[in-house]
Design a protein that fits this description.
Strand content: 25-35%
Strand order of the largest sheet: 3-4-17-12-7-8-9-10
Number of strands: 27
Mean pLDDT: 86
Oligomer: single chain
Helix content: 25-40%
Low-confidence stretches: 1-17, 284-288
Number of helices: 16
Structural class: alpha+beta
Radius of gyration: 26 Å
């Protein structure tokens, strides 16, 4: 098998000599389709937050990750706990549901920037009360509802006040009793039936949250560096260690508290700098108003068996971007590619086609790897670019296999964990599921270049490296033109890395 290495091919669709008349017309029409002004950042955040895609059980979730943009402080009164200042992260009026290690709480930043939370204790050892936390709450995973109106939030606050003075066996039950009376359910059962934090968070992530039988959409904001799947396990561990934590509290000293106070002040000073550096108030208004193509992003869901297997060799999630309605892919990539098209294949290719990646085998793998797709959110081109990690040329990491069909662009990360499993599950035949409508297959990666002023800019590299579908140079150029048409504000580069022979 021969490969033509990088020959520096840079094919932009804006080069008129490389774009056909039909493609130019398609591009022109695209500009008048579903372009819109899109908020890439959540409107309730005071800090710009990068987005990550993280696996939990059988799903992939989009997470707004603040742990590198805002530092956790040590809790003063209790050793081992971490806190954050919610009023420095969230704008006034933000209501959220916090999952610490292991404390659970409802909280809101009021119009004055004060933070009030439901303060409940486990084992019925103290009456529940609503307290002004002076901004501080326990760090962890914060669920921010995005489609609840102020009337619903006011109802929750009213019920919470009614429950002041009550006691329950867990802080989860105290908070869930409030939400349950308000009308919230999880997996068709009242949320008030939950007592343990890990089972509550796990079920919300898997089945979602409902209010009066209507779906509640929510964002996940992470203030800890622990991945979601590991965080669920950490919550369970923290629950089991509750007696130990209470013993630590009894053995705490004034000297230890003084050290935590000093560390908290140091973190506060650092966070003031970070808040100034990443404040959304510093985002240029003209960049926020840029009109761009809007895409529906969908994330794969595994079967139950797939969820178990991904714990062994990592999450091989598929990211599916729906092509805009009315977009004519036939103007760019009219031909449908066939897997393993060689008339006289080598024995290795024959073995892959007939045995390792036989249609029945691929169908079984795909049914567990991507049993379904779940809508994530509408995204713009810059958001999609930001989701891609920067290519590590030294370790050859952060590459994606890409398949373009008549309706979707599908991406699969190549380096996840075990090299053999990565090679198998990242194969283009597996990614496509032997779709009969494959128009292009290759690799995609994001690289950065340094500008003369010292800043960096990103660009996307696409090649035709697919031993399964074997696109030719013209198809690679057409794919570059098509991606450039869809993402006109991104720098798209073609690299002539084609499989021959």
């Amino acid at each position: 098998m021969k490969k033509i290495k990088d020959m520096g091919m840079r094919n932009h669709w804006s080069k008129r000599s490389e774009v056909t008349f039909a493609q130019a017309v398609a591009i022109f029409l695209l500009c008048f389709s579903s372009f819109a002004t899109l908020d890439e950042q959540p409107p309730y955040l005071r800090i710009e937050a990068p987005a990550l895609l993280e696996p939990v059980s059988n799903q992939m979730h989009l997470v707004w990750d603040l742990h590198e943009r805002f530092s956790e402080e040590p809790a003063i009164r209790e050793a081992g706990l971490k806190a954050i200042r919610a009023n420095q992260i969230f704008k006034a009026g933000t209501f959220f549901f916090g999952f610490g290690l292991p404390n659970v709480y409802l909280a809101k930043v009021d119009e004055n920037g004060d933070v009030f939370k439901v303060d409940a204790k486990s084992v019925r050892r103290q009456e529940m009360k609503i307290v002004d936390t002076h901004g501080k709450v326990q760090s962890g995973i914060l669920l921010v509802p995005t489609n609840l109106d102020q009337e619903v939030i006011a109802t929750i606050e009213k019920i919470a006040k009614k429950y002041e003075g009550s006691m329950d066996w867990t802080c989860v039950r105290s908070n869930c009793a409030i939400l349950g009376e308000a009308g919230f359910t999880v997996n068709d059962k009242p949320i008030s039936e939950y007592y343990m934090p890990h089972s509550l968070l796990q079920d919300i992530l898997r089945y979602g949250l409902r209010f009066n039988n209507q779906v509640v959409t929510f964002d996940l904001v992470k203030t800890t560096g622990t991945p979601l799947q590991e965080y669920l396990a950490a919550i369970k561990s923290a629950v089991l260690k509750t007696p130990i934590r209470h013993a630590w509290r009894s053995a705490d000293t004034e000297e230890a508290q003084a050290l935590r106070v000093a560390e908290a002040k140091r973190m506060q000073a650092l966070n003031e700098q970070l808040l100034h550096k990443y404040s959304v108030d510093d985002v240029k208004e003209d960049s926020a108003a840029t009109k761009q193509q809007v895409f529906d992003l969908e994330l794969s869901q595994t079967s139950d068996l797939g969820a178990l297997l991904r714990r062994l060799w990592g999450a091989h999630g598929l990211y599916r971007i729906k092509l805009p309605e009315g977009f004519s892919i036939d103007e760019f990539l009219p031909a449908k590619l066939v897997a393993f098209p060689q008339e006289n294949p080598s024995w290795a290719t024959w073995f892959k086609k007939k045995v390792i990646f036989a249609p029945s085998v691929v169908s079984w793998i795909h049914s567990h790897m991507a049993a379904a797709y779940k809508p994530c959110r509408q995204v713009g081109e810059q958001f999609l670019c930001d989701l891609l990690p920067v290519y590590d040329n030294q370790g050859l990491k952060n590459r994606f296999n890409m398949v373009i069909t008549g309706e979707h662009i599908i991406l699969a990360k190549l380096e996840v964990g075990n090299a053999t499993v990565d090679w198998t599950l990242g194969k283009h035949a597996v990614v496509s599921g032997y779709s009969q409508d494959v128009r292009f297959a290759g690799e995609l990666r994001k690289e950065e270049r340094v500008l003369p002023d010292g800043s960096t800019t990103s660009y996307i590299v696409i090649d035709g490296n697919s031993g399964t579908y074997r696109p030719d140079r013209d198809q690679l150029l057409a794919a570059v033109n098509m991606i450039s048409a869809l993402f006109p504000h991104l720098d798209i580069v073609g690299e002539e890395n084609l499989v021959e022979g």
